[in-house]
Structures are given as C-alpha cells and as structure tokens.
Amino acid sequence: MSSPRVARLVAALALPLTLVAAACAPQAANSGGGNVQPSAVSSDVASAGPVTLRFLDFEEGPDAAYIKKAIAGFEQQYPNVKIERTEQSFDQVMSTLNLRLADPNGPDVATINNGWQSMGTLSKAGLILNLDKYAELYGWRDQLSPTMLRQLEFTPDGKKMGEGSLYGTPGARLTTVGLYYNKKLLTDAGVAVPTTYAEFETALAAVKAKGETPIALGTQEKTYATNPLFALQSLLGSPKAINDFVYGSGGTTLEQTGLGTAAAKLAEWQKDGYLNPGYNGLDFDGGKKVFTDGKAAFHFDYSGALVGTGADSTKFGRVQLPQPDGGAQTSVGAASAVFGISAKTKNPDAAAAFLNYLGSQEMNDLSVQNGYLPIRPSTAQVEPGTTFADEVAGAATVTKDDGFLPFFDWSSPEMLDVIGGQVQLILAGRSTPETLVTDGQKSYDDAAAKRG
C-alpha cells in the first residue's frame, strides 16, 4: 500500500477513448516475458506529430486537481500531445488493471502499485514496458535515492523484487509514516518534543501520568490497523533485515525484521492504558479525529494526515524519530503514485515524456505549493511552524540518509490482511506477537512458493 485511499463508487466502464498515432511512432519490441522494451527511444516528442495518450489514474478530490494541473503543464510543454484522462477509484483501477493493459485499446499510461501483486504481476506478464532505456535517456536513476529506486525494480523474469530493471517511475509526491504530536498536551505534561525513541517513551509515561491519553488510533479496519505497527518496526527493527525480507534477499526471516518486537510493544502500550478508549470500534479516520480533537498526545499516520480535517496545523507537529542506536533516519515511505507504460502503446516516447514530466522539478515544486511532500528537494517556500514544515524537514532527512523502507505488506499479496488481523486480535487479548510472526511467515513462504 503506497498511500491511504478511500474508495468511492464510480462507473466501472471506462469511457471510449481514441488514439491518434504518428505513422513513424516506435513500436515496442517484445524480448520475451517481462522484458518488453522499445527497439529505440527518443526524447524528441515534438516531431511525432499529433499524439493522444490515454491515461488511467485513481486520483480524487484535491489529488485530482493536482493531476489536472500536471496534465495542463505537460500539454503546454508538448502542444502536439493530448492527454485523455480516465479517473476511477483505487480499488477499481487495481482490480481491472491487468485486463485493461492487455487490451490494445487500453490506457497508454496507468497508475500502478508497488509490490508483487501489481507491478510484479504486470512486469512478469509483459503488460508494462521495461523502462531501462528511458531511465538512461532521462537520467531517472540519478534523481532518486537508492532505497526509493529499489521499490520500482523487478528482474525481467519476475522472480525478484528490489533489483533488476525499472518498470515504473514515481510522481513528484512522497508518502511517509511518522509521529504526529499535540504541542499543548506535551507542554502540559512537562515534556519536550521527543527527538529519540527513549524520549518518546518518557513522553508517553508523562502524558499518562497527567491523566491524558498518550496515543490515538483506530483499529476497526485491518488495512490501517498496521500503521503504528509498521512505524514501530521501522524504529525497533533492522532496516537491512526489513529490506531483505520484503525484497526476498539474504534468507531473512520475518522474526529477524523486528515485527514481533513492534507487536509486543503495541501490546504493552495497550496493557499500560496508553491507547484511546474504544480504539477497536473506531475506523482509521475515527482514530485520527480523537487526535485532532485534542484528546490524545500522539498519532502515527501518513504525511498530510491533517489536510482536510479542519485542524489548526500550528497546534500540532510531526517528527521522524531516529532508531534507538542513533543510526540513520528511517521511515516507511514510497511515492504517492507510481506510473507505468503499457506494453501495447503505440507512442512509448510520448508516454515516457509524460512520466518524466510527472516526476520533474516543476512538479516537485507544484507538490509543495499544494501541500504535498516532494519526492525530491524543492525550492518552493514552506510556511514555518506548521506540521507540513515538519513533514518536509523529516522527509529531507530520510532522503539524505537514504532511509526509505518499503511497505511491509509488499512482501506477499495477503500480508496486509494477515498482519492487520493479527494486530486487531493482539490488542483484543486474543492472539500473541509470536502468532503474528508465525502467520506472517507462512503468508510469505506460500507466496514465494507460488512464484517459483
């Protein structure tokens, strides 16, 4: 899961779209399996003549407005290219993407998701282009940190994630998981904003002693019950072990990733009364509301969590805690959206130019101007003293330390459901961290066996 999405019902039938292809457009050359590449690549899109690209994405609300600005900017830069956009919900796009990309009249460019279930399946089936030639043409590999690039790579045979060829490129927005805090509640408890994990634990105890709730969360949904767990794992676990497990390298077991340690800490917090009352009956947004209403001191969430809540961002802050040993600043983080090119497109050069624009410096600056974390450093001004300023500073440190960790559920198609369900049971006193580790390892092993 790259970012939180709230699905809404829209028509499942895509609008009929047309493609005007230039007679000299380069065709994709299939080298077999997941190694579909154009025979030649060019950044000279203007000479292709009139081109229409079909674009499928799942951006809604403010995100859709941002994408529309991106399309307008691209079309201004390339007047001969028209983008015809189809927007549907995240669930609809993900559940139909394989069939759409297999259709010669399907999208030329589509939003895809990281991990085995989306990018891995699409690349292995030869439904999306191997982008290595375009990466060299546009210098994409030089623009991102190694831990971010690794999230976009698969071997052409589809057997390994986190190495090999590039099959997607990120847009200019970043999602990280961090710790939000209420400034007043910390002041009332007589503690400073924590800058280390030890200080965080001290602050939790101080807030509890003051009679306030230390941590707000809602665990009714399996998907989001994992938020605090994965955030804790990034602090208490080994970054190398987490990467090796998710990407299937090094023979690492789930137990070695620190997920069991993080689950035990969550159970300890529940026992100590650190969680808000009724958390198991609240959904993700309900838990967030407990925090924004000023009824809890801390809340683990995605970047941009306070946008649209009506909360005064000057009353809250956000921090990326370093690991207890003082090592690199790490965070579960990924591009908010990743884009791939259909292997059946008749205009791969124009499609690649569109991908290049979506991740450009211009779009990174537009991200900041619209309140999104940029995936690369931006010179756009950020209002000081706000949670957004904290988010930008935290992401910059993680980027500098090359500390991005993959979402743990990328490790198997069922991992999110398995781990989320176990978090619910552990906090209800009906399971244990040991069972979580056992069930998670089984999900991982079963998925690996199916891949061969």
Question: What does the secondary structure layout of this molecule look like, with pairings?
Answer:
Elements: E1 28-30, E2 36-38, E3 51-57, H1 62-77, E4 81-87, H2 90-102, E5 109-112, H3 116-124, H4 132-138, H5 146-149, E6 153-154, E7 165-166, E8 169-170, E9 173-182, H6 183-188, H7 197-209, H8 222-225, H9 227-236, H10 239-247, H11 259-271, H12 284-292, E10 298-302, E11 316-319, E12 331-335, E13 338-341, H13 348-358, H14 361-369, E14 373-374, H15 387-400, E15 404-405, H16 415-427, H17 433-451
Parallel strand pairs: 3-4, 3-5, 12-15
Antiparallel strand pairs: 1-2, 5-13, 6-7, 8-13, 9-10, 9-11, 9-12, 9-14
Key structural traits:
2 domains, globular, 452 residues, 6-stranded mixed β-sheet, alpha+beta, D-Maltodextrin-Binding Protein, domain 2, 5-stranded mixed β-sheet, 40% helix, 17 helices
Protein architecture, described:
The structure is a single chain. The protein is α+β, with helices and mostly antiparallel strands. It folds into two domains: 51-167 and 337-370, D-Maltodextrin-Binding Protein, domain 2 (3-Layer(aba) Sandwich), CATH 3.40.190.10; 177-334 and 390-450, Periplasmic binding protein-like II (D-Maltodextrin-Binding Protein, domain 2). It is built from 17 helices and 15 strands. It has helices at 62-77, 90-102, 116-124, 132-138, 146-149, 183-188, 197-209, 222-225, 227-236, 239-247, 259-271, 284-292, 348-358, 361-369, 387-400, 415-427, 433-451, and strands at 28-30, 36-38, 51-57, 81-87, 109-112, 153-154, 165-166, 169-170, 173-182, 298-302, 316-319, 331-335, 338-341, 373-374, 404-405. Strands 9, 10, 11, 12, 14 and 15 form a six-stranded mixed beta sheet that branches. It has a five-stranded mixed beta sheet with strand order 4-3-5-13-8. Helix 9 (227-236) packs across helix 11, helix 11 runs antiparallel to helix 17 (433-451) and helix 16 (415-427) runs antiparallel to helix 17. The longest helix is centred in the C-terminal third of the chain and has 19 residues, at 433-451. The radius of gyration is 22 Å and the shape is globular. The two termini are 24 Å apart. Belongs to the bacterial solute-binding protein 1 family. This is Raffinose/stachyose/melibiose transport system substrate-binding protein. GO terms for molecular function: maltose binding. One of its GO terms (biological process) is maltose transport. Keywords: Signal, Transport.
